[in-house]
């Protein structure tokens, strides 16, 4: 058995100092460039140039040689960190990528990518054919050299482009997504070209089989990733969140997937960054990986690992080697032809794609960045003997220079691109979804015993969660030995009877649970995410059992419950529900059905055509509005947004009524704001603002008069007399409405 020697003390010390210095200078220059109105990526790339042979190697050669003029094995340690940063940056890019938008704009992206490949390839091949022979590694293989130059000129740097788009805050705009889509197609074609040219360099003949294998590998990998892989990623993240429930576990899972997929694509000869990008796309579509977790990953990637990657890429550039007049002349020619080919191809294809001049300039400026991808190509060319050291330095210089150009061009041109109504509405909707109450509900608990109220609760939330990827858990509690003093009667309906034997009781429990689950699943309908069925034997407090389950990380609890009566001093619901509403750490939605539904359970399945949404402009009302609008959009129902201005009653007929003009104006603004949200979510809206001495009575009258099928209300509970208190108007509506009422209690 061979024992691998660990890093020596000096090797470990050196790599730590290198990383500390690179990160410090990269972040320092990144912040400096940001203060000057330039993207930080420019400063991060420039940091490597300053610490490389071009500056530090000239100013203080001894310091440079002791730090960075090291052996290949020592420098490989930096490259490993660089690749981790590159992988993380591609994951961030995937998380920010809107696949639906790219599919919608697929034709445009393909046209742009072809323009960005064909013209640069032709100009690059011509350049290689006429370059002096001293720049060719193998003078007898000019065709191979020309093909390699064509490939190098065709490549784009997705990591650089992505970082710039993120920093300019345009990655989610149509133009940003178009650049990413076209860039990914460009790079895929570039990998095929590189495989072909590399095969030609090794054998002296074109390996068409290698090129075909590469294309098939890309197709197979993407096909498996977006079918089987999508399900594996989603199920794994849900399992990790259920079993561990920490952000750290989710972040670790993401990196494991990214590294594993990167290993697969690297093994297939497709580069690790393709696997990392695809994982980012897949994870970004899983709702459990919410906005907060995503931001944590992006913060670490963009503040530590991405700056190191760009600084190490800049470290490779040697400006001194370009001081030779002949090398400088060729370098200028290569740079000019590289820019002309990419810009010319993109500008021409952008017109064919129906894009504006400024859109063409922006896309051309972005895709003109070569970055680390061209550095990788240059490294492969040098290793295969295709390039001389001088040509290698020229290509690296072009990669850095074009990457430095891209941010300036895009910053100048993007503000000149007009945003259309469709794009503006899409961005507004995405901004809303990030802060949305309903959209950020990842786990919901529905305790059940199959009562009419619980069945209607399932009927109501079915369309609420149907278009979402919300995980819904159905909790059946066997309370056979529970005391009736716990208030179970009001919530669960009839109690299970213990018929004397444990086997019969277990059978009865199983049958009752199965029956309850079946009824609820029929009312819930088809959901985007699978539902879990949980059965708990809880002979003690049912409320304690529910609260214990809620503590594992649910975002909302939904319960079905009829009121106990109209006693203003007594509890509105049973003690079980009262405790759950008061003590649960997350919002609770209580759904109370009407007497007519109790008499005729068949009404549960009737369509919801009209929803009454009382609102007072609070956050609780806003959350209830999201619930109502989401249900309405799915059910094609009409939502009546109502605000009742409370008027102080007076029995003195000689007292003038108070002027409530200002209050009515405020009410108009409240309902208009909620109505705008409803239209944004695709619901049909009408608004009502009235004045009444008794707002609760007025709301019940509105529901009866206009034929509301359900009332959705939001409220904040307040403890009073040892019970949950929803407010007089809400409690009046719950007790007196002739239709079901859903009350969303915010924490």
Question: How does the SSE layout of this entry go?
Answer:
Elements: H1 9-35, H2 40-51, H3 56-59, H4 61-67, H5 72-95, H6 99-104, H7 106-130, H8 142-154, H9 158-167, H10 174-203, H11 208-243, H12 247-267, H13 272-284, H14 291-315, H15 325-352, H16 357-367, H17 371-383, H18 389-413, H19 421-435, E1 443-448, H20 452-465, E2 471-478, H21 488-492, H22 502-524, E3 532-537, H23 542-550, E4 556-560, H24 575-583, E5 588-592, H25 595-599, E6 610-614, H26 619-635, E7 638-646, H27 661-680, E8 684-692, H28 695-706, E9 710-716, E10 718-720, E11 723-725, H29 728-736, E12 741-746
Helix pairs in contact: 1-2, 1-5, 1-14, 2-14, 2-18, 5-9, 5-13, 5-14, 7-8, 7-10, 7-15, 8-10, 8-17, 9-10, 10-11, 10-16, 11-12, 11-13, 12-13, 15-16, 15-18, 16-18, 17-18, 20-22, 20-26, 23-24, 26-27, 28-29
Key words describing this protein structure:
10-stranded mixed beta sheet; Na+/H+ antiporter like fold; alpha/beta; 747 residues; single chain; two-stranded antiparallel sheet; 29 helices
Strand content: 5-15%
Overall CATH architecture of the domain at 9-433: Up-down Bundle
Coarse shape: elongated
Query: What is the helix tally?
Result: 29
Q: How many strands?
A: 12
**Helix/strand/pairing class, anyone?**
alpha/beta
Give unreliable regions as ranges.
482-501, 650-655
Biggest sheet, in brief?
10 strands, mixed
Distance between the termini: 61 Å
Overall average residue pLDDT = 81
Proportion in helices: 55-70%
Q: Specify the oligomeric state.
A: single chain
Spatial arrangement of strands, main beta sheet: 3-2-1-4-5-12-9-6-7-8
Name of the CATH first level of the domain at 9-433: Mainly Alpha
Q: Radius of gyration over alpha carbons?
A: 32 Å
Under CATH, the topology of the domain at 9-433 is which? Na+/H+ antiporter like fold
């Amino acid at each position: 058995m061979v024992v691998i020697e660990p890093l020596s003390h000096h090797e470990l010390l050196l790599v730590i100092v290198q990383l500390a210095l690179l990160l410090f200078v990269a972040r320092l220059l990144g912040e400096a460039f940001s203060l000057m109105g330039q993207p930080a990526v420019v400063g991060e790339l420039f940091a490597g140039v300053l610490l490389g042979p071009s500056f530090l190697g000239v100013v203080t050669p001894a310091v440079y040689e002791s730090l960075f003029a090291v052996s290949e094995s020592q420098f490989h340690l930096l490259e490993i960190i660089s690749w981790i940063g590159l992988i993380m940056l591609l994951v961030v890019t995937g998380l920010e990528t809107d696949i639906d938008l790219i599919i919608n704009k697929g034709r445009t992206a393909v046209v742009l990518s072809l323009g960005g490949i064909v013209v640069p390839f032709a100009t690059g091949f011509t350049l290689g054919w006429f370059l002096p022979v001293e720049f060719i590694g193998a003078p007898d293989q000019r065709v191979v050299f020309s093909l390699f130059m064509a490939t190098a000129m065709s490549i784009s740097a997705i990591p650089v482009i992505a970082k710039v788009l993120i920093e300019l805050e345009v990655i989610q705009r149509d133009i940003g997504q178009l650049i990413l889509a076209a860039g990914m197609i460009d790079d895929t074609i570039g990998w095929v070209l590189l495989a072909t040219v590399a095969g030609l360099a090794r054998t002296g003949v074109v390996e068409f089989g290698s090129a075909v294998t590469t294309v098939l590998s890309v197709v197979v990998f993407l096909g498996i990733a977006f079918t089987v892989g999508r399900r594996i990623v989603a199920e794994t993240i849900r399992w990790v969140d259920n079993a561990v429930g920490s952000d750290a576990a989710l972040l670790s899972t993401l990196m494991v997937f990214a590294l594993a997929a990167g290993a697969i694509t690297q093994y297939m000869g497709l580069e690790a960054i393709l696997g990392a990008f695809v994982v980012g796309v897949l994870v970004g579509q899983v709702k459990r990986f919410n906005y907060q977790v995503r931001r944590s990953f992006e913060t670490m990637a963009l503040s530590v690992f991405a700056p190191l990657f760009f600084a190490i890429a800049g470290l490779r550039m040697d400006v001194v080697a370009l001081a030779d007049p002949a090398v400088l002349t060729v370098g200028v020619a290569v740079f000019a032809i590289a820019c002309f080919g990419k810009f010319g191809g993109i500008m021409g294809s952008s017109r064919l794609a129906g894009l504006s001049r400024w859109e063409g300039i922006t896309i051309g400026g972005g895709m003109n960045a070569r970055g680390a991808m061209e550095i990788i190509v240059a490294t492969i060319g040098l290793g295969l003997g295709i390039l001389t050291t001088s040509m290698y330095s020229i290509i690296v210089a072009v990669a850095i220079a074009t990457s430095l150009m891209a941010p300036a061009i895009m910053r100048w041109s993007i503000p000149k691109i007009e945003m259309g109504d469709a794009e503006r509405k899409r961005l507004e909707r995405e901004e809303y979804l990030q802060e949305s109450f309903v959209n950020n509900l990842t786990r919901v608990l529905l305790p059940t015993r199959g009562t009419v109220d619980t069945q209607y609760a399932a009927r109501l939330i079915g369309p609420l969660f149907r278009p979402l990827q919300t995980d819904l858990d159905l909790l059946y509690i066997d309370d056979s030995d529970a005391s009736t003093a716990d208030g179970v009667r009001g919530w669960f309906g009839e109690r299970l009877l213990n018929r004397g034997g444990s086997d019969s009781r277990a059978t009865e429990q199983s049958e009752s649970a199965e029956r309850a689950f079946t009824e609820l699943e029929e009312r819930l309908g088809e959901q985007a995410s699978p539902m879990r069925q949980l059965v708990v034997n809880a002979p003690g407090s049912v409320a304690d059992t529910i609260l214990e389950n809620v503590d594992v990380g649910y975002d909302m609890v939904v319960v079905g419950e009829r009121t106990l009566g109209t006693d203003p001093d007594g509890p509105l619901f049973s003690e079980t529900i009262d405790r759950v509403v008061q003590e649960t750490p997350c919002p609770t939605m209580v759904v109370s059905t009407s007497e007519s539904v109790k008499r005729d359970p068949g009404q549960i399945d009737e369509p919801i055509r009209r929803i009454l949404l009382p609102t007072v402009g609070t956050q609780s009302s806003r959350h209830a509005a999201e619930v109502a609008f989401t249900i309405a959009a799915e059910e094609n129902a009409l939502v009546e947004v109502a605000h009742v201005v409370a008027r102080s009653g007076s029995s003195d007929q000689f007292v003038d009524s108070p002027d409530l003009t200002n209050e009515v104006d405020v009410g108009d603004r409240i309902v208009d704001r909620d109505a705008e949200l409803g239209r944004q979510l695709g619901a049909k809206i009408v608004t009502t603002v009235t004045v009444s001495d008794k707002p609760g009575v007025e709301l019940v009258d509105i529901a009866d008069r206009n034929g509301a099928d359900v009332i959705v209300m939001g409220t904040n509970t307040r403890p009073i007399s040892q019970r949950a208190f929803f407010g007089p108007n809400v409690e009046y509506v719950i007790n007196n409405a002739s239709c079901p009422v859903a009350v969303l209690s915010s924490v």
